[in-house]
């Protein structure tokens, strides 16, 4: 509706400009001395115009204008101010006097002559000697109307007053709307006159009606087209999302090796597909690691359980042949493996270690005291001052025990444990004089169920979980572990833990 109102307003203003232009054209003719009877009027059907006296008598109009009386009855605003397209002030009076003298001379030579004529309806009045007129002085910023103009709904611009009227023309039965411009003027004798010029609003009303009709018809169609285009574009844009959803629905059945399609576009949907595939790859890797872990754990448990069962069956048939040492050894192996699996499960679940103050110096001394008399002796090089870190004493003792066990298993004659500090970091070393760890395998040995010497018996070599537990525990405590070659040969495991 705002569009229609704006269109109507602009067209009405355009008609007003046309009407004012016609009025000023008549005023210019009068100023050049054209008599009323010789005035050139615009089209009387679409742009009727009249020169009217203040008391409503039509002084001049087009002969074909079939309207009885003035086309408007509102009074144009007037007042002091600047010139509005005509002459004003004292200079205007002098010019008017000169014109009046010229007119009197012409009348003396040619005789008395009519200066006005009646219109088609007999509304013209004769004004003797009214050759030219001058526009009255009008306020340069007239924006308000007097009481009569206000009642007629008029508006004023600089030099002209406007109003809308309804006129019934001779060739039309229904009244038509016009925009009328009124300009005040005066004859050379000082008698005031009013120039009314009208412009038809039929074009404006037709244009608004056509626009309204087009909007009523076209707007629903436009909305339908917009809705259809929006649906098609949205469907096309979301088609890759549907493909991703469909593929994920298939993957939910258990095949993590499948991947969602990645669109060629690098927009948000493309990045979503890439991230989804990366997530699926991580899930596949985790699932494969878990499957392998379960298979290895089952394999490691099967041997001691089978051996224990065999010994128990033999003891059931021949009680005197029961070997208690073998039964106890297998039981301890099963218990140790179950303990390792439980610890790894807790670490995988994200269980955080306790925040206790742990003296590593005392921890090492306590661990080595339990190993006095072992086949491979353990030496130590410890600082006199205590070296404390924050963490779980039980888990850190497990780290030290696993490293010493691994070193004793591979050492030729001795194992050495050292402790020191550097730049806010506690450094613990476990060194053996064995065959060492090949550089290519120094990362792989920390994986679960990995044993470099597969030919070694499980009784001697363990299940391959000790170093995996060491790395997971150290990382949970914010530290790192690495393996290097020892200066005298063998392996050197270095654990660095932050001192907090």
TrEMBL record:
Recorded E.C. number(s)?
A: 2.7.13.3
Pfam families on file: HAMP, HATPase_c, HisKA
Domain (Histidine kinase) spans 296-500
Q: Where is the composition biased (Gly residues)?
A: 78-89
Q: Which SMART domains match?
A: HAMP, HATPase_c, HisKA
Task: List every stretch annotated Disordered.
Answer: 70-157
Q: Where is the composition biased (Acidic residues)?
A: 90-115
Top-level EC class as recorded in UniProt: transferase
List UniProt keywords, sorted A-Z.
Answer: Kinase, Membrane, Phosphoprotein, Transferase, Transmembrane, Transmembrane helix, Two-component regulatory system
- List residues of the HAMP domain: 235-288
Q: Where in the cell is it found?
A: Cell membrane
In terms of SUPFAM superfamilies, this protein maps to: ATPase domain of HSP90 chaperone/DNA topoisomerase II/histidine kinase (SSF55874), HAMP domain-like (SSF158472), Homodimeric domain of signal transducing histidine kinase (SSF47384)
Name under which the protein is recorded = histidine kinase
What is the native source organism of this protein? Nocardia cyriacigeorgica
């Amino acid at each position: 509706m705002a569009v229609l109102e704006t269109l109507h307003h602009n067209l009405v203003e355009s008609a007003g400009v046309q009407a004012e232009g016609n009025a000023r054209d008549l005023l210019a003719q009068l100023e050049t001395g054209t008599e009323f009877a010789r005035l050139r009027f615009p089209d009387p059907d679409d742009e009727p115009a009249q020169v009217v006296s203040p008391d409503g008598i039509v002084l001049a109009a087009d002969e074909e204008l079939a309207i009885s009386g003035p086309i408007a009855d509102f009074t144009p605003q007037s007042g002091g101010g600047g010139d509005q397209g005509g002459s004003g002030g004292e200079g205007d009076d002098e010019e008017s006097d000169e014109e009046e003298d010229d007119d009197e001379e012409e009348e003396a030579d040619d005789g008395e002559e009519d200066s006005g004529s009646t219109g088609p309806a007999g509304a013209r009045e004769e004004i003797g000697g009214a050759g030219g007129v001058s526009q009255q002085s009008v306020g340069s910023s007239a924006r308000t109307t007097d009481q009569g103009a206000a009642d007629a709904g008029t508006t004023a611009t600089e030099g002209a007053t406007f109003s809308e009227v309804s006129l019934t023309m001779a060739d039309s039965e229904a009244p038509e709307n016009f925009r009328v411009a009124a300009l005040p003027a005066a004859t050379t004798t000082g008698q005031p006159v009013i120039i009314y010029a009208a412009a038809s609003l039929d074009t404006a009303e037709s244009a608004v009606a056509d626009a309204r009709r087009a909007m009523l018809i076209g707007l629903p169609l436009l909305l339908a087209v917009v809705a259809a285009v929006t649906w098609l574009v949205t469907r096309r844009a979301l088609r890759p999302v549907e493909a991703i959803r469909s593929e994920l629905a298939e993957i939910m059945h258990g095949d993590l090796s499948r991947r969602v399609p990645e669109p060629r576009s690098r927009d948000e949907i493309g990045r979503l597909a890439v991230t989804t595939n990366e997530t699926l790859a991580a899930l596949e890797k985790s699932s494969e690691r878990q499957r392998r872990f379960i298979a290895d754990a089952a394999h490691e448990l099967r041997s001691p359980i089978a051996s224990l069962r065999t010994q128990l069956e033999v003891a059931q048939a021949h009680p005197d042949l029961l070997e208690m040492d073998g039964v106890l050894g297998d039981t301890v192996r099963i218990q140790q493996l179950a303990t390792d699996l439980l610890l790894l499960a807790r670490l995988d679940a994200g269980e955080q270690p306790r925040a206790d103050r742990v003296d590593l110096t005392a921890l090492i001394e306590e661990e080595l005291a339990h190993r006095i008399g072992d086949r491979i002796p353990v030496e130590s090089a410890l600082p006199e001052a205590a070296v404390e870190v924050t963490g779980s004493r039980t888990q850190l003792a497990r780290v030290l025990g696993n490293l010493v066990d691994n070193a004793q298993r591979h050492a030729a004659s001795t194992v050495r444990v050292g402790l020191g500090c550097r730049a806010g970091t506690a450094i613990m070393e476990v060194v053996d004089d064995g065959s060492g760890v090949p550089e290519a395998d120094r990362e792989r040995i920390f994986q679960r169920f990995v044993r470099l010497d597969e030919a070694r018996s499980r009784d001697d070599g363990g299940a391959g979980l000790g170093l995996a537990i060491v790395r997971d525990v150290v990382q949970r405590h914010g530290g790192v572990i690495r393996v290097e070659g020892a200066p005298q040969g063998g392996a050197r495991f270095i654990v660095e833990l932050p001192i907090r």
